[in-house]
Amino acid sequence: MPQLASALQGMGNKTLQQTPPAMIRAFDQEISSIPGLVKLTLGEPGFDVPEHIKQAAIKSIEANDSHYSTAAGKLPLRQAIANQLKNRFGVEYQGDGEVVVTNGATEALTATIFSLLNPGDKVIIPTPGYALYNPIVTYNGAIPVEVNTKDDNFVLTPERLEKAIEANPSVKAILLNFPVNPTGRTYGQAELQALATVIKRHHLLVISDEIYGDLTYDHRHYSMIEELPEQTILISGLSKSHAMTGWRLGYLAGPKALVQQITKMHSFLITCINDTAQAAALEAIQNGQADPIAFRQEYEHRRNLMAQALRALGFEMATPEGAFYMFAKIPAQFGDDDFAFARAIAKEAKVGVIPGSVFGPGGEGYVRLSYAAPEADIQEAMKRITAFMAKQNN
């Protein structure tokens, strides 16, 4: 095993060294060695990729589809994405120039932030929110402005957004995610229109992460591009909608002048997406419209199962309207120490959850449970938490 040369000790990018690791993964790794652990930690869909999508990938391999595509992705796939967005949201994008196929939604976020924001630019980020947003923004030298949504039932209100802008008049962008990871909250049409009014008045760039848009339960998913297409970069993908997390297939769409800059950064980061994943994605988009419907129905069933069990134990939570996460207030005897509670149920009940404070201000005293896990795992986890709580209350 090579030992680092003494002259290179301490070498590394200082900003990266000061950036904390991805805490969701770090906590998951911390508890994963516990024998018999039922994991409700990661946003991993509890389904296999639909067979017709796998067959499209196999045909791609058999046809020796194994060469560089253009940096932005194969044009038929980009056109299919553009057609889907037009059919779904009524907004017309050109596949050539206004759509980019990316290595998952995370790379789409990274390429967008690195190409459109400068050091010192301020970015509004509602919290609790996805734990990777702040590190990506910070590493680029931009400044996150966290807006705590806890007192508004975990949704960003126009009033709170206006106050955040007034306190940070030089803010350049807002990073939205809905349905929200970790709370499962989302925005109806009227709520989105109200936010868009404030955003338009202050000329903010919108980076809209809508990766969970196909998993909205109580109403259709409304997109920010329906309100502000001229100042929005839409980010989405197939990881959640088609259970394709390991394929790393995401995409973004937006005004051509911005997408041209993002495409340049995207090409520096990864060159291009592999051909087989693109073949699978084309099949998913063109012929897999029904796949997310079946998944969504099952997730809604699992959501109801978990919510009923947790509420019976005295946990408080807002009913998730989308995604596949439950954000539950921990028992009073643990105070706001969500890490202590998460470690306790991992060690004593053998159930893995993620501490809420990982997701930023407003997450303290909560835990996130994923109901993307198989139903049998959810039922077993609820039994174990029930036994754990009974022991705590004796």
TrEMBL record:
Q: Which PROSITE patterns match?
A: AA_TRANSFER_CLASS_1
Q: What cofactor does this one take?
A: pyridoxal 5'-phosphate
Record domain Aminotransferase class I/classII large: where: 37-385
**Gene3D superfamilies assigned:** Aspartate Aminotransferase, domain 1 (3.90.1150.10), Type I PLP-dependent aspartate aminotransferase-like (Major domain) (3.40.640.10)
Cited SUPFAM superfamilies? PLP-dependent transferases
Q: What is its EC number?
A: 2.6.1.-
What keywords are assigned to this protein? Aminotransferase, Pyridoxal phosphate, Transferase
User: Where does the source fall among the domains of life?
Assistant: Bacteria
- Molecular function in Gene Ontology: transaminase activity
| EC category | transferase
A Pfam family this chain is assigned to:
Aminotran_1_2
Q: Which family does it belong to?
A: Belongs to the class-I pyridoxal-phosphate-dependent aminotransferase family.
| Protein name as annotated | Aminotransferase
Q: Which organism is it from?
A: Limosilactobacillus alvi
